[in-house]
Specification:
The protein is an alpha+beta fold. It has a single domain, classed as 2-Layer Sandwich (Mago nashi protein). Helices cover about 40% and strands about 20% of the residues. The protein has five helices and six strands; from the N terminus they run H-E-E-E-E-H-H-E-E-H-H. Helix 1 crosses helix 2. The chain is globular. The N and C termini lie close together (about 10 Å). Keywords: Signal.
């Protein structure tokens, strides 16, 4: 399954015009961290769901609590394709908690607290910019607020990163 995931990421990189991204940092520097905590099934004290280093090393939290994390590697083309999708296409660096709060307030609605919903955390740290977003109930709010564009970009990123983590942690047939 991991091979299939890597093949899909490479294929995406080859089928689109992707420019190489200069990560300009040490290879082991973490450039993206994604986590969902709390909610119905909290897993406190564990590594984030997904962490990506500048050299393309991906660390995904194991499916079962207590198991070691799954470590894989994106080649340069796949890494560049993924970051083009997240940074360029979905404008991840422009997503902030305050931007989502302001967007929701401007729409005349209010940010809702969703009981039992997990809190999504996304941190991106690149030479071109930094963002750290923490928001509870992203999935539920995205369904309730279809006009909230920034929230929907975060929801797309959350869904994409969950798909990558699931592909890495799925047991081989």
């Amino acid at each position: 399954m991991r091979f299939l995931l890597m093949l899909v990421l490479v294929w995406q990189g080859l089928t689109t015009s992707v420019q190489a991204r200069d990560f300009g940092m040490t290879p082991d520097a973490i450039v993206l961290t994604f986590n969902m905590s709390g909610g119905q099934k909290p897993r406190t004290g564990e590594a984030p769901i997904l962490a990506i280093a500048a050299d393309g090393t991906i660390t995904a939290r194991a499916t079962r609590p207590g198991d070691p994390p799954v470590i894989s590697h994106l080649d340069e083309a796949a890494r560049n394709a993924l970051f083009q999708e997240l940074i360029d296409d979905d404008a991840a660096l422009a997503i902030t908690t305050k931007a989502i709060e302001a967007e929701v307030a401007d729409s005349g609605l209010r940010l809702r607290t969703v009981p039992g919903a997990p809190t999504t955390s996304l941190t991106v740290d690149l030479p071109e910019g930094h963002t750290a977003v923490t928001l509870k109930g992203v999935s539920a709010m995205a369904r309730q607020l279809p006009e909230a564009a920034t929230l929907h970009r975060l929801f797309r990123i959350q869904t994409r990163l969950l798909d990558i983590a699931a592909g890495l942690t799925k047991p081989a047939p």
